[in-house]
Amino acid sequence: MKFEDIDVRQLIPQKEPFVMVDKLLYCDETTTKTALTIKADNIFVYGGMLSRAGILENVAQTCATRIGYLTIDKPVRIGFIGAINNFSFSDVYVGIGDCLSTEIVTAAEVGNITQVDATVMCHDRLVAKGNMKVALMNEQ
Questions:
Q1: Which is it for the CA torsion 133, 82, 9, 42, positive or negative?
Q2: With bands split at pLDDT 50, 70 and 90, how would you rate the model's confidence at 138?
Q3: How far apart are the C-alpha atoms of 126 and 9, rounded to whole Å?
Q4: Of 86, 42, 46, whose CA–CA distance to 61 is shortest?
């Protein structure tokens, strides 16, 4: 199965209107890349621009996409942001019609906690980068 053939919504626990990834571009054990085209009805869009909270949620959902893809034959797991560290945002503004390209690289995994290094780009320009820890709920 090709990445572009996968319905990302089947990999993550979030449902509309809270979905912040729309394409899986790549995934292996350590690296995941997703894309999100910003639409006017996005709940994180204010005054035509995507908020920083929306960018962080996009990173978290990229983490969820990774877990969903790596465990595609199991029920989708629910997780939450455990920590956000050293995140910096550039002066690049992301607006309606722009496409975010988000890459996470797994830095550490211990039990149900994953730490990733994240980079968010838009039109080949850095939007944000930093570290995030995501904790998964125990499997049911």
A1: negative
A2: confident
A3: 26
A4: 42
Q: Both tokens of residue 5?
A: 């053939």
Closest C-alpha among 116, 89, 80, 94 to residue 36: 94
Nearest CA to 128 out of 80, 83, 95, 92 is that of 92
Identify the residue whose tokens are 């830095």. 107
- For 135, other C-beta atoms within 10 Å of its C-beta total 14
The structure's pTM equals 0.95
Q: How many CB atoms lie within 10 A of CB 126?
A: 14
**Distance of CA 132 to CAs 1, 40, 60, 71, 105, Å?**
29, 27, 8, 21, 10
Peptide bond into 17 cis (omega under 30): yes
- Phi, psi at 94, each rounded to 5°: -110, 120
For 45-77, the pLDDT digits (tens) are 999 999 999 999 999 999 999 999 999 999 999
C-alpha of 6 from chain center:
15
Average per-residue pLDDT for the chain: 95
